[in-house]
Amino acid sequence: MHIGRQGFVAAILLLCSTQAFGDSLLWTTGAPNFVYQDGCGCFGRPTPSRFGYISGRLDSASPQRWAAVPFRLDEPSRINELDAYYTDPNGTVKEVDYIIWKRDDLLAPTTMVASGSLGPYAAAGGSDLATQDLHKHTVDVSLARGDYYLTMYGSGLPGQTAYIGWWAGGSLQDPLLEQNFVWRSAKFPSPGFQHYTYTGSANLLADPKDVYNPAFALYGEPVPEPAGFGLFTLGLVIMVAVATAVDNTINSISEICPSGAPIFTALFR
């Protein structure tokens, strides 16, 4: 089958349009890092340690021991994947759940906008900080442009201690969303979320506030506004017309739509 230059250009531009609306990184706090170095360790060497947040049921006094981590969506988005670093230190977690809260500036979260299960807990492998305890979850959550908090927690048998340890120390959180504490709850809705201040050492972190950044990433696709989608379609039509009228080479077309893009991939309290 013979495809003329006009059809070839249109096919490439259509491919560009599908790539433009494919999954992309919507938000991340970064991978966890070693937080502190303490003790003499093996052979007299200090031992670097990670730090994580208890997320789930601790005991009857703290049945909703949760953390709320701020994030932002700059345009309406459909979240298709939630990646997070956590483990089950007690072996009692049956499944992992999430809550997304509406965020008013950096005030305590009170209003849920989405919640659900991430599925049964399964141990994750990994050989370094970037991959160890990294869990990738498929989700389907559509959110408006705006400000939010994310909570993740482990669930077990009724009345049983069951929580995940959500590793912290992410260094990629927006500095505008970092504070000298993290919002944590013991019971919800009363008394709800309160300030939690880390009092241990953070001598391995370049920014001590990173101890308040549990590590996660959100992937998905922006949801175009109707008017914006119309303008995008018009732009494609114009591009096809221009590419047809001008005798460009295939190499110059490849410069319009370049291929390849970067892929971003202890102690509990």
Describe this protein with a few key phrases.
16% helix, 3 helices, 36% strand, alpha+beta, 269 residues, 6-stranded antiparallel beta sheet, 7-stranded mixed beta sheet, globular
Please tell me about this protein's structure:
The protein has 269 residues and is an alpha+beta fold. The chain has one domain (24-223). It has three helices and 15 strands. The protein has helices at residues 5-20, 226-245, 250-256; strands spanning 24-28, 36-38, 47-49, 51-57, 66-73, 77-87, 95-102, 112-120, 134-143, 146-155, 162-167, 182-185, 193-196, 216-222, 267-268. Strands 1, 4, 6, 9, 11, 14 and 15 form a seven-stranded mixed β-sheet that branches. Strands 8-7-10-5-12-13 form a six-stranded antiparallel β-sheet, with no helix packed on it. Strand 12 and strand 13 form a beta hairpin. Helix 1 runs antiparallel to helix 2. It is globular. The N and C termini lie far apart (65 Å). 29% of the residues are buried. Residues 5-21 and 240-265 have low confidence and may be disordered.
Q: Topology of this structure?
A:
Elements: H1 5-20, E1 24-28, E2 36-38, E3 47-49, E4 51-57, E5 66-73, E6 77-87, E7 95-102, E8 112-120, E9 134-143, E10 146-155, E11 162-167, E12 182-185, E13 193-196, E14 216-222, H2 226-245, H3 250-256, E15 267-268
Parallel strand pairs: 4-15
Antiparallel strand pairs: 1-14, 2-3, 4-11, 5-10, 5-12, 6-9, 6-11, 6-14, 7-8, 7-10, 12-13
Helix pairs in contact: 1-2
